[in-house]
């Protein structure tokens, strides 16, 4: 009896020890068990209503706006006239104001292999009033089309503001659901932070730039009314020497103008803006970022300029995740992480949004910056000065979801799920913001994952960061 009791207890202890060892390794967060459709979706057909061309000859189409200065008192309005230049002038006026103003823009065209673009217009409207609704018209005569936008509140530490997060959108039926879900979310996003991979035109033979045009018409229903702040992904490279196209990012940079010069950047692929209580830094995963490169030198000089007493929320958007536990694209962001993570921790960046991986994931606050070759400290550790890393490359594009994940779930991963959706980053004041991820299959108000974020600058934690050790 005594021998059997001892034998049974030894077995129990052995099993318990094994469980504890597994738990020590599998100390990650939640891997969602939600089952979604894994079928790949084709792009919506060209005769879809979301791609409809305005019925009037040469009417402006693909209208979209973005911020035009550093603080939010300027807007860049862009559109295309397909057949002839037409007018590059924008007529605009404040709500309930009878005085109408005019701003003169420019137009350009480009060629890509056997494609010639329409006439791409860009017009900057300056000296707007904060927190004001403006109406604007593009085109003239019978081609005129009218839209509106609202400027952000004046920059300040306790200004509430709501950002939408979308990435890797494409133009499939799933893409349409994602955009609709965002538009109908009761927590209304005021500006979209788009983390790269826009049209997926490069997925077509000869990088069919006609699919840039369909995508521009598809997003117009949102992007003509609120700014889309975009970063580039690998699908914007359009580098195709076999087609004679050796200038990277040509279609993107011709179609999307951004205010990069106001932040002393030398490239439209990396820049910064202020918006309400947020300071947003846009980086390029597919431009040189090593030491002494223009992007490196710009970011090195940019981060010390951020005044957290004015804009407490420091947000970085990139395309390739610095932390990801999915097998697809695993560690592709590692070299950028090695170059820039110490700065992200030192300057207490609140959150880094990325795309590229066609799924959703949210990290714990971790850093991996103590390694110096000889000390062996090469594992991510909890670090309350570090940002939360959120991958939201789940917009719905034709490449579909990635479902294979590294196992066991690593400790830095708090929640992961391979589903399409969008995010909402809702700033409440200088200390608190709420992030919610919305799965396409759920009701508009349902958050499949969420997190209250405490500002890293205004709500510091006592333990020192390893970046300062």
TrEMBL record:
Keyword Metal-binding: yes
UniProt name for this protein: Purple acid phosphatase
Cofactor: Zn(2+); Fe cation
Catalytic activity: a phosphate monoester + H2O = an alcohol + phosphate
GO molecular function: acid phosphatase activity; metal ion binding
Fibronectin type-III domain mapped to chain residues: 59-154
InterPro entries in the cross-refs: Calcineurin-like_PHP, FN3_dom, Metallo-depent_PP-like, MPP_PAP, PAPs-like, PAPs_C, PAPs_N, Purple_acid_Pase-like_N
Gene3D superfamilies reported for this sequence: 3.60.21.10, Purple acid phosphatase-like, N-terminal
Keyword flag Transferase: no
């Amino acid at each position: 009896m005594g021998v059997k009791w001892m034998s049974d207890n030894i077995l129990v202890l052995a099993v318990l020890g094994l469980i504890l060892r597994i738990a020590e390794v599998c100390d990650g967060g939640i891997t969602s068990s939600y089952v979604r459709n894994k079928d790949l979706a084709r792009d919506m057909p060209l005769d879809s209503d979301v791609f409809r061309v305005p019925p009037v000859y040469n009417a402006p189409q693909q209208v979209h706006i973005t911020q035009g200065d550093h603080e939010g008192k300027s807007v860049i309005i862009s559109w295309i006239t397909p057949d002839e230049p037409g007018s590059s002038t924008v007529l605009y006026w404040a709500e309930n104001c009878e005085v109408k103003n005019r701003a003169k823009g420019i137009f350009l065209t480009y060629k890509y292999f056997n494609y010639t673009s329409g006439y791409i217009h860009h017009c900057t409207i300056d000296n707007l009033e904060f927190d004001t609704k403006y109406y604007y018209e593009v085109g003239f005569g019978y081609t005129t089309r009218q839209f509106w936008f609202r400027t952000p509140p004046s920059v300040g530490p306790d200004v509430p503001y709501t950002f939408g997060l979308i990435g890797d959108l494409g133009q499939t039926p799933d893409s349409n659901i994602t955009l609709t879900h965002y538009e109908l979310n009761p927590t209304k996003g005021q500006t979209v932070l788009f983390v790269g991979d826009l049209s997926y035109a490069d997925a077509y033979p000869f990088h069919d730039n006609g699919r840039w045009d369909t995508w521009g018409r598809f997003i117009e229903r949102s992007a003509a009314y609120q700014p889309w702040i975009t970063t580039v992904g690998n699908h914007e490279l359009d580098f195709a020497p076999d087609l004679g196209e050796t200038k990277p990012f040509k279609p993107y940079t011709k179609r999307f103008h951004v205010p990069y010069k106001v932040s002393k950047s030398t490239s439209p692929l990396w820049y910064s803006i202020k918006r309400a209580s947020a300071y947003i830094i846009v980086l390029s995963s597919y431009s040189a970022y090593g030491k002494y490169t223009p992007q490196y030198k710009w970011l090195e000089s940019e981060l010390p300029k951020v005044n957290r007493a004015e804009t407490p929320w420091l947000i970085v958007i990139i395309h390739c995740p610095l932390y990801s536990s999915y097998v697809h694209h695993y560690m592709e962001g590692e070299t950028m992480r090695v170059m820039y993570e110490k700065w992200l921790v030192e300057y207490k960046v609140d959150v880094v949004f990325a795309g590229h991986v066609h799924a959703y994931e949210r990290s714990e606050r971790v850093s991996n910056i103590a390694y110096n070759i000889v000390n062996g400290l090469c594992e991510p550790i909890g670090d309350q000065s570090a940002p939360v890393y959120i991958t939201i490359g789940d917009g719905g594009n034709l490449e579909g979801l990635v479902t294979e994940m590294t196992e066991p779930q690593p400790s830095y991963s708090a929640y992961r799920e391979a589903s399409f959706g969008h995010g909402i980053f809702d700033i409440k004041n200088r200390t608190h913001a709420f992030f919610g991820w919305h799965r396409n299959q759920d009701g508009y108000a349902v958050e499949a994952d969420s997190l209250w974020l405490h500002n890293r600058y205004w709500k510091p934690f006592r333990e020192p960061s390893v970046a300062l050790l």
